[in-house]
Specification:
Elements: H1 2-22, E1 31-41, H2 45-59, H3 62-74, E2 77-79, E3 85-92, H4 94-98, E4 108-116, E5 119-126, E6 135-143, E7 148-159, E8 162-176
Antiparallel strand pairs: 1-3, 1-8, 2-3, 4-5, 5-6, 6-7, 7-8
Length: about 190
Amino acid sequence: MRQPVLALTTALLLTGALAPAQAQVQKMRPGLWEHSVVMKSQSGQMEAAMAQMQKSMASMTPAQRKQMEQMLAQQGVAMGPGGNTSTVKVCISPEQADLDRIPPQEGCTQTVTRTGPNAVAMRFSCKGAQGQPPTTGEGTMTFNGPTAYTGQFKVTTTTNGKPDQLDMAQTGKWLAADCGALKPAR
């Protein structure tokens, strides 16, 4: 269950983080970004899975935790602590920030529509692959300049083989021009 939760969170964060470039709204500032998502599922299963993932990470030996963090960092992700809040650090390269159109994640389609000078509406649909369930969602994002945004999403997916709906509140903020050891998200 840990991988679907992480993959869903990361996909939404990257899709949301890169939406300004797709919609030709303000471009994001390249560098290290911190994205926070508060999730609430109708079933409560997603929260339980997130809590279990946090518990598993906490119970790992320092060497195991470091190995897990390195594996995530290779994908451009660093997870932070939090109950039903996921905090992910993502490196956005200058090329990613400058793209007029970000290719959708494999198996996914997305539509981004400008709804105002600093706002976009988004819809996405992912077929589900590599053990991930099919997922659809829609939401809005408001950009507060090139260094911050907020967003609301409704996502329909499957959790432990049962349909589930997630309500997600998302925020993002630019942290630094230098991503350190974190590589740009892929």
